[in-house]
Design goal:
The complex is a heterodimer of chains A (252) and B (267). Chain A is an alpha/beta fold. Chain A has a single domain, classed as Rossmann fold (3-Layer(aba) Sandwich), CATH 3.40.50. Chain A is built from eight helices and ten strands. Chain B has 267 residues and is mainly α. Classes of the chains: A alpha/beta (252), B mainly alpha (267).
């Protein structure tokens, strides 16, 4: 029986108001930690939108846990999004809610847990992510790292099998986000969990990922493990890492 | 001509406005459809997550507006009672004081002024709040959590608005009648029992039904239009444009509906 979390077969997204993807195939199994990176317009955002079920205008097949995302009905589409942990770069905390309200929202909305049970889970996350100081505060009164830790806690509150980190995890002092880094490392060695990092700065994720995939103009131009990422002479990868004008990629 | 009319050939600013208005109507229809579709989610969500929003909206739309509504009701009630009680005797129809008050305050001014207060205060705030949430990607964030934002954002506001407007109309009418009576005592004396009896005699079941229908209609339309325009802005620069558009169009629609309901009930 196929245990893959995500199977993408010959995915093609036309570039009308979005970055195109061309004939992309990819498989994400439980236990995988992948960094997907590339310059602007490479198609990272388009792939995230397809994985989350936001964009259904594509050709090819995309399966999540064996089911075609395109075939989900109205309720299944919402449940699919609920099942995936998602953290995006803007964090998207609700500005009229406190830290604990933001973290508990997915459970309040979806779960059959009692209020006391939800409170216990939120207490645990607040403690684990060092949010005690601000648990009653709204985002406006919080520091950048507190907002980040709150958004991360909210993204994993349903203990998702697949976590997508979309252009987040940057611009923070490492010391302020230790609880998140620790959680990422635990996820990395958990054989049942997978994480996809979408980023312009793949080097940040060397500790958290096993596989690195580079896109350029909708196609995959590099794929390899940590060693390959660090040592490969792939011209696309070298140009990207060195932020050089010299190479096969054109400046947008 | 044997072919569909091409509306794009309608010339000038008026034509463009008509086309724009018609597109807005179609978009609003699609918005309403999406809300009806979202009712499917009711089977799966926990209603407790909506409860806090309903309570917050009632606090903002109803309770926070109370003082303002009471002050306006006192002034309108006092003015109408003074005008009616000093001018009706000139025409020999002072016996119709109660009828005049019920007609002017309970049937028309109460629901209309309350709606105007809610539109200018809460309607504009709703558009701004939702537009800012959309611009700051909070709504996207909710959608990605699997939250049905049409249901989660719109329905609690409609429920809260219906409850708030109904309550505010009852309070407005009560304050306008009895507070207005007390104010009017400073200029003219009307025996309290005579005033009360005149009111009771003038009230009918039809007035109650009409007020309830207006409460329900305004309570539904004001948040629906506010939410519709709140979801539209694509950048923060468009927020004031849509706030203004929402307020003006809701005001106009409320006046039209008020007239329509009055015609249906009393003509």
């Amino acid at each position: 029986m196929d245990q893959a979390l995500v199977v993408i077969e010959n995915l093609t997204v036309d570039g009308e108001g979005r970055a195109p993807l061309t004939d992309l195939s990819l498989r994400v199994d439980p236990g995988d930690s992948m960094v997907v990176f590339g310059p602007e317009g490479a198609g990272l955002g388009s792939l995230v939108a397809v994985l989350l079920g936001i964009d259904n205008e594509y050709r090819g097949k995309v399966y999540y846990k064996g089911r075609s995302i395109k075939d989900f009905n109205y309720i299944e589409r919402h449940n699919h999004k609920r099942d995936i942990g998602y953290l995006h770069g803007d964090y998207g905390l609700l500005s009229n809610m406190s830290v604990e309200e933001n973290i508990s929202l997915p459970l309040e909305y979806h779960s059959e847990l009692s209020a006391d049970e939800i409170e216990l889970i939120v207490d645990s996350l607040v403690e684990n992510f060092g949010l005690g100081r601000c648990r009653k505060l709204r985002p406006i009164a919080m520091t950048g790292s507190e907002i980040f830790r709150t958004a991360y806690a909210r993204a994993i509150i349903n203990n998702p099998d697949l976590l997508i980190v979309d252009h987040a995890f940057i611009d923070h002092a490492s010391i302020n986000i230790i609880p998140v880094s620790d959680n990422m490392r635990r996820r990395k060695v958990d054989p049942n969990k997978a994480t996809l990092f979408f980023t312009y700065q793949p080097q940040i994720f060397l500790d958290f990922a096993d596989e690195f995939i580079m896109f350029y103009k909708g196609g995959m131009v590099f794929r390899g493990d940590r060693g390959a990422f660090l040592e490969s002479e792939n011209p696309y990868l070298r140009q990207f890492i060195q932020a050089s004008r010299q190479g096969p990629m054109e400046m947008m | 001509m044997g072919r569909d009319m091409d509306f794009t050939v309608i010339p000038g600013r008026t034509g463009r406005r008509v086309i724009g208005f018609w597109r807005d109507v179609l978009d609003f229809r699609d918005f309403l459809r999406s809300i009806i579709t979202s009712f499917q989610s009711l089977r799966y969500i926990r209603l407790r997550s909506l409860y806090a929003i309903v309570v917050n909206q009632i606090r903002f739309t109803g309770i926070d507006a109370l003082l303002f509504v009471i002050l306006i009701a006192l002034m309108i009630g006092g003015t109408v009672i003074i005008q009616a009680s000093t001018n009706l005797p000139r025409f020999g129809i002072e016996g119709f004081l109660g009828n005049i008050l019920v007609i002017i305050i309970a049937r028309e001014l109460g629901p209309l002024v309350t709606a105007l207060i809610v539109i200018s205060r809460s309607g504009s705030a709703m558009v701004t709040e939702i537009a800012v949430q959309k611009w700051s990607r909070e709504i996207l964030s909710m959608e990605i959590m699997g939250i049905d934002t049409r249901l989660y954002i719109v329905i609690p506001r409609v429920i809260a608005s219906i409850l708030s407007i109904t309550s505010l109309i009852v309070i407005f009418d009560t304050v306008a009648f009895f507070g207005g009576y007390l104010i009017s005592l400073t200029t003219i004396y009307i025996p309290a029992d005579q005033f009360l009896q005149a009111l009771l005699d003038a009230f009918s079941f039809k007035d109650l039904v009409s007020a309830l229908i207006k409460s329900f209609t305004y309570g539904t339309l004001i948040p629906l239009i506010a939410c519709y325009y709140g979801f539209l802005p694509r950048s923060k620069f468009e927020v004031p444009v849509y706030v203004s558009r929402a307020v003006i169009r809701t005001l106009f629609l409320i006046f039209v509906i008020n007239a329509f309901i009055s015609v249906i009930f009393y003509f």
